[in-house]
Automatic annotation (TrEMBL):
One of its GO terms (molecular function) is transmembrane transporter activity. Belongs to the CTL (choline transporter-like) family. InterPro entries: Choline_transptr-like (IPR007603). GO terms for cellular component: membrane; plasma membrane. It is found in: Cell membrane; Membrane. The chain crosses the membrane at residues 41-63, 93-114, 126-144, 150-172, 193-220, 226-251, 379-402, 408-430. The gene is 11426925. The keyword Ribonucleoprotein does not apply. It holds the Pfam family Choline_transpo. This is Choline transporter-like protein.
């Protein structure tokens, strides 16, 4: 096993070498209004085909039960799975309208309170999510829904264990989030982009919920309905992730330009900055966004959980060996799928894989990866997103339970996904600011120092401490391995 020991002086020297190597300085690249090439076109085409195909299916499924049962005579193809007549599309569509309304209200409220109550809202999300999951689990068991009860109970347990494992990191995480909120709040153009994309997502959800309501109202058995809803939910998840990451690319590209011009308070955005970022995100870089959106979220979530478990295992060598195997596997995947790729896409216009690789090599070579691994801002924002989805799903699910108890969990689970996506569009604005801060610090620390000198000192001190911590742990491992190798000789 090879262990690299890096202290703060080594990290600083590597940072200088990286910037003096073949990579262009970030300030020079951003200021160049260069023509960009199209990347990952296959995934762009695949996403568009998926969007058109699923849209067509949604219309068919919704219309088949709209105002008249089996209007398009689809039931003859599913007669083997038919159980009973469930109703009409318009019976269930208002329940999804509630989900869309609650999710939009939560997302817009988050953006409105971003400047004054954002940190308090994130703290509440961290502390209340475990309790909320546990309560829902109990309610599911009470309703004789064993599967959902177990699922939410496992979720509550994992959430609790994760919070315990990272409790010492939360002060630094909240500091980074506070500075990210400061960056975003001083850019009203960025806020308007988030509102606009939330409106676009809501329009797609109106069509999606129309088809989903038709599935719930269909005469198929529960098995057929669940499978159709799962397929439609995967499509909705990908579409939502693409829209969220499009906002990510637009916001991060704009924030990088702001940092180069002296920070949010020192100078305003160039006149066409937002429009340029929007143009690149929706044209040449859109294929890369579609590609990364398929895998990034799942890999990030798995990485957070494994890191949290790994830090609390202790001296159980057998378990540590198994977790280390998973850890290194996930770390390899992170090299090719990480959220920092979207900043590189927005700034340089690279393909997704190259952006992810370059971002990870930048962090590794400068030592900033130690800081990124210590920060839990992405997990905290995800907790807020999940909480928003749970609230949305609860509102629709309770109403559905009062009317049709056997359909409540179908409607509640899909409504929860809708709420998570809508709230996620709001949360991604802050996450974009966080990723921009780390990319700027790795590329050129002076960008952060000019923007906020006190924050620069705090983040530099934390990086120094983390590198010292890693060096001491690496020396302990080397010493332990050396002693173990000498034991047979002295025995």
């Amino acid at each position: 096993m090879t262990i690299t020991i890096m202290d703060s002086s080594t990290a600083t020297n590597n940072q200088e070498k990286y910037r003096k190597s073949g990579n262009n300085n970030i300030s020079e690249v951003v200021n160049m209004d260069q023509k960009r090439r199209w990347h990952d076109v296959f995934w762009l085409i695949l996403f568009v085909i998926q969007l058109i195909g699923v849209g067509f299916v949604l219309v068919i499924l919704g219309v088949n039960r709209f105002k008249k049962k089996n209007r398009l005579d689809i039931d003859k193809y599913t007669y083997r799975f038919m159980e009973n007549e469930a109703g009409l599309t318009e019976d269930y569509w208002p329940l999804y309208a509630v989900a869309g309304g609650v999710g939009t209200a939560l997302g817009w409220s988050w953006l409105l309170l971003l400047g004054s109550r954002a940190i308090q809202m994130m703290k509440v999300s961290v502390h209340i999510l475990t309790t909320y999951l546990a309560v829902i689990s109990v309610l599911c068991f009470w309703a004789h829904q064993f599967f959902w009860g177990v699922a939410f109970a496992i979720g509550a347990a994992l959430q609790f264990l994760y919070i315990i494992s990272v409790i010492d990191r939360l002060p630094f995480t909240m500091l980074v989030l506070q500075k990210a909120v400061k960056m975003v709040w001083n850019l009203p153009e960025v806020m308007r982009v988030a509102y606009a994309f939330m409106a676009v997502m809501l329009l797609w959800m109106a069509l999606w919920s129309f088809g989903a309501a038709g599935v719930v109202a269909s005469s198929m058995g529960d098995g057929g309905r669940w499978w159709l809803l799962v397929v439609l939910s995967v499509s909705l998840f990908w579409t939502g992730a693409v829209l969220c990451n499009t906002v990510h690319v637009i916001v991060s590209g704009s924030l990088i330009r702001v940092s180069i011009h002296g920070g949010c308070e020192a100078a305003s955005l160039p006149t066409n900055s937002i429009m340029k970022s929007l143009q690149y995100a929706l044209t040449t870089s859109f294929g890369s966004i579609c590609y990364g959106s398929l895998f990034t979220a799942a890999i990030r979530t798995l990485r957070w959980e494994i890191r949290g478990i790994r830090s609390k295992i202790g001296k159980n060598e057998c378990l540590l060996c198994c977790v280390d195997f998973l850890f290194h596997l996930v770390e390899t995947l992170v090299r090719f799928f990480n959220k920092y790729a979207y900043v590189q896409i927005g700034v340089y216009g690279k393909s997704f894989n190259r952006s992810a690789r370059d971002a990870w090599e930048l962090f590794q070579s400068t030592g900033v990866e130690a800081l990124v691994a210590y920060d839990c801002s992405g997990a905290v924002l995800l907790m807020g997103t999940i909480l928003g989805g749970l609230i949305t799903g609860t509102c629709s699910g309770v109403w559905a339970w009062m009317k049709w108890s056997d359909r409540a969990f179908m409607i509640g689970s899909t409504s929860m996904l809708m709420g998570m996506i809508l709230v996620g569009v709001a949360m991604v604005v802050v996450e974009s600011a966080v990723t921009s801060i780390y990319i700027c610090y790795a590329e050129d620390p002076l960008l952060i120092q000019r923007w906020d000198h006190e924050f620069f000192n705090q983040i530099s001190e934390t990086l120094h401490q983390r590198l010292q911590h890693r060096s001491s742990r690496a020396r302990e491992v080397l010493t332990h391995d050396h002693l173990d190798s000498r034991i047979p000789e002295n025995a």
